[in-house]
């Protein structure tokens, strides 16, 4: 990995890390005295599409922030392409990793095109004049997210879902090898939820995305990670992870699961009037463990 070499740091020699794009070992993060994440261990292989699940406050955004270097882990280490994250030069890491966040920043009247062009920055500089080829890349990305017709509109005037799609176009233009998305579908209607996730999958790069919609994650992800109270409690294929006991214990819901008729991963049907059955369902699950 040439750009990583530019970071002027020694790669780890641990053989268990070789071949993994991202490796997280014993990661913990705390703010003040409050421990938010502890003992997190997992890895991402090249090209995997991995969903990060967990109830509100479980620590999903905090973990993603550690991975895109907004937070420094308090304990443990993150390796990207075998090299500790904290040894990367910021720009070298930005060339590799694109981030799409749940809350859209204000771009102070920049047009949609201007915002997508910001995706070129990690590979160029602010003084750089956009070439014809780059303009075509921007147009292509806007076409992929069905936003070309709003290319000249001010970004701040877009709807929440439109903004999200433009930010994904910016990430496409960045040409990352890892895409981190924090609730990328939270503002999207159901058609665009499916389209945007399919689009992210079609890029062929590694994606780690947090979700609240468990059925969407089940349908679209190769692997799921589940956080609960800042700890990783499950890591595996959707049909290994999404079980009645886990849904009861981690998410506090009573649900039935069956293979989805189209893709075969679990289809979850929630029980809306059965809070009183929750405990017995969790107990049942424990009995099956
Ligand atoms: N900078 C901070 N200072 C204090 N507490 C924080 C900070 N950042 C996160 N937390 C706390 O850490 C916990 C996890 O927050 P985080 O946003 O990571 O959860 P989440 O799983 O992404 O939640 P949600 O699904 O609601 O977005 C929460 O209790 C939150 O209040």
Q: Specify the structural class.
A: alpha/beta
Counted up, domains total 2
CATH architecture of the largest domain: 3-Layer(aba) Sandwich
Major β-sheet strand ordering: 6-7-8-3-9-10
Task: Indicate the CATH class of the largest domain.
Answer: Alpha Beta
Order of helices and strands: HEEEHEEHEHHHEHEHEEHHEEH
Structure description:
Belongs to the ABC transporter superfamily. Keywords: ATP-binding, Nucleotide-binding, Transport. This is ABC transporter ATP-binding protein. One of its GO terms (molecular function) is ATP binding. Residues 22-254 form the ABC transporter domain. The chain is an alpha/beta fold. It has 2 domains: 2-242, P-loop containing nucleotide triphosphate hydrolases (Rossmann fold), CATH 3.40.50; 243-289, no CATH class. Helix content is 34%, strand content 25%. It is built from 11 helices and 12 strands. The chain has helices at residues 2-6, 60-67, 90-96, 112-117, 132-144, 160-174, 190-202, 214-220, 238-241, 244-251, 278-288, and strands at 20-31, 34-45, 49-53, 75-80, 83-84, 97-100, 178-181, 206-210, 223-228, 231-236, 255-259, 266-270. A 6-stranded mixed β-sheet has the order 6-7-8-3-9-10, with helices on both faces. A hairpin with a 2-residue loop joins strand 9 (223-228) and strand 10. Helix 5 crosses helix 6 and helix 10 (244-251) packs across helix 11 (278-288). The radius of gyration is 20 Å and the shape is globular. It starts with a helix and ends with a helix. Residues 1-12 and 278-289 have low confidence and may be disordered. The site of adenosine-5'-triphosphate has 11 residues, from strand 2 and helix 2.
């Amino acid at each position: 990995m040439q750009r990583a070499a530019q970071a002027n740091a020694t790669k780890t020699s641990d053989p268990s890390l070789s071949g993994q794009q991202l490796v997280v070992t014993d990661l913990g993060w705390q703010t003040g005295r409050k421990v938010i994440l502890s003992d997190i261990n997992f890895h991402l292989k090249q090209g995997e599409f991995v969903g990060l699940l967990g109830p509100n406050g479980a620590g999903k955004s905090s973990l993603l922030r550690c991975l895109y270097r907004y937070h420094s882990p308090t304990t443990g280490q993150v390796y990207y392409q075998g090299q500790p994250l904290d040894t990367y030069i910021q720009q070298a890491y930005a060339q590799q990793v694109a981030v799409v966040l749940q809350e859209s920043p204000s771009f102070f009247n920049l047009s949609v095109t201007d915002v997508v062009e910001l995706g070129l920055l990690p590979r160029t500089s602010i003084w750089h004049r956009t070439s014809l080829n780059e303009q075509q890349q921007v147009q292509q990305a806007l076409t992929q997210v069905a936003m070309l017709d709003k290319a000249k509109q001010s970004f701040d005037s877009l709807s929440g879902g439109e903004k999200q799609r433009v930010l994904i176009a910016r990430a496409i233009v960045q040409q990352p090898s890892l895409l981190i998305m924090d609730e990328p579908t939270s503002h999207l209607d159901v058609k665009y939820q499916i389209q945007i996730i399919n689009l992210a999958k079609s890029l062929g790069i590694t994606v780690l995305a947090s979700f609240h919609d468990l059925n969407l994650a089940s349908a679209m992800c190769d692997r799921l990670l589940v956080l609960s109270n800042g700890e990783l409690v499950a890591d595996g294929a959707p049909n290994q992870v999404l079980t009645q006991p886990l849904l009861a214990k981690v998410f506090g819901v009573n649900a039935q699961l069956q293979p989805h008729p189209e893709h075969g991963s679990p289809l979850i049907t929630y029980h809306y009037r059965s809070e009183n059955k929750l405990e017995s369902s969790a107990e049942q699950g424990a009995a099956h463990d």
